[in-house]
Amino acid sequence: MSAEQPRPLFGGALSAVIPHSATDVSDLREIPDNQEVFAHAHTDQSLIVELVEFQAQVSDQDSALYHFEDIADSNKALEPGTFAVSNVVALPPTEISLSECSSAWMLSGTQCVSKFNEQARNTVTIHLGLFRLPQFTTEILVTFNDPQIISPDSSSAASVVTHGVPWTVQDFKLLLKTLTLHNPELFG
């Protein structure tokens, strides 16, 4: 499959250009029905496309931060100094394919997280894309986990790049730009 070819997601209800060297994690282990998860074949990078409940109580401009903090909570990275947001921007409708969303956002930040409840913590840059679809009471959350500092005591230490080309923010932005809805029945 060409690197620029959109890949079907959720049984073809959505599609997007997924970066090179992506392994569909559902081929390796069970993934929740509301997620599509991809891992880089040669690094510890991962991408998650997730359907989540629309958070009506959260304003559009705070929505990406809300989900970033929710991920930090899941990662047990809410203590002071374990997470930081560096950038939040609105994605202009002219720069995305998902015309059904009421607003779209991209956030970049870092979290100090442990993998598999290990003691060792890795510093991970998290790029988050959020598409709000209130008419479907759904939000599409796209997360790009890009480890920056891997603890030598982490199980991820063996995944440090020795070969292969890692994914870039441009790869992630292409995924966000090309995310397209084909079947609204996906949302129930």
TrEMBL record:
For this protein, what is any one GO molecular function term?
small GTPase binding
Sorted alphabetically, the Gene Ontology BP terms of this entry are: atrioventricular canal morphogenesis; heart contraction; heart looping; protein import into nucleus; regulation of heart looping; regulation of heart morphogenesis; regulation of membrane depolarization
Q: Has the keyword Protein transport been applied to this entry?
A: yes
Which branch of life, at top level?
Eukaryota
Q: Cellular component GO terms, alphabetically?
A: nucleus
Database matches in SUPFAM superfamilies:
Mog1p/PsbP-like
Q: Which UniProt keywords apply?
A: Protein transport, Transport
Signal peptide stretch: none
Similarity comment: Belongs to the MOG1 family.
The protein, known as: RAN guanine nucleotide release factor
Organism whose genome encodes this protein: Cynoglossus semilaevis (Tongue sole)
